[in-house]
Amino acid sequence: MRVETALARLGWAHLFSGQTLEASTIMTYPSGAMLCTNGNPIESLFVVLSGRVKIYTLSEEGKLRLLRLKMAPTLIGDIEYASGRNVLHTVETVGPVTCLRIPFDVLRTHNRTIEFTEHLLRGVSEKLFIEANASSNHLMSTLEERLAGYLVSLSESGNELFQDEMSQLKRKEVAEWLGTSYRHLNRTLQAFADEGLVEKTRTQVTILDATRLKERANGMLYE
């Protein structure tokens, strides 16, 4: 993948200088790779050029909580770059993900442009707003709404990735992200199946009525 072509396709070609791109690296990560983990230092900005990532955090009780699923293009590490702090949220790849990895010191030396700074500030502000809104919605929403929103958001990743995330092996993780137990998650999936929203087997989940499922999410989408 040519970096310049990928950035032009995303409309981000004007954000990075030639010197920055020369000092950067294209990286392709497999599904399940951790781009950064909560509380740890990070030294590079990840420009996600293709693929999808899931972003989650730890609750005050020490439990994982899903915040959102993000498709390319997006920046990972922008909040930490701007604040100088350790990683705020864990970011994990969902399927293969290709990123442009830019060391922070390269950005500070070669990329202090108005265009990049404005883009960075808009992105950080939007993320903080979405996070505050998502935290409030998560506390007030039901499990049915959270699960419906997760299924709808995840379905846009493609069937293969959808089935991988909703496999029996992964459902325990999904239950923790959504703030429930594995047993309660399966009961809610079965209730969706009884209503004709999904088809559920021991190993797979298939969405049968995406429109009604989105209505059940009641705006609780992870995007």
Automatic annotation (TrEMBL):
Keywords: Activator, DNA-binding, Transcription, Transcription regulation. Residues 29-108 form the Cyclic nucleotide-binding domain. Residues 141-211 form the HTH crp-type domain. It holds the Pfam family HTH_Crp_2. SUPFAM superfamilies: cAMP-binding domain-like, Winged helix' DNA-binding domain. One of its GO terms (molecular function) is DNA-binding transcription factor activity. It comes from the Bacteria. GO terms for cellular component: cytosol. This is Crp/Fnr family transcriptional regulator. It comes from Exiguobacterium chiriqhucha RW-2.
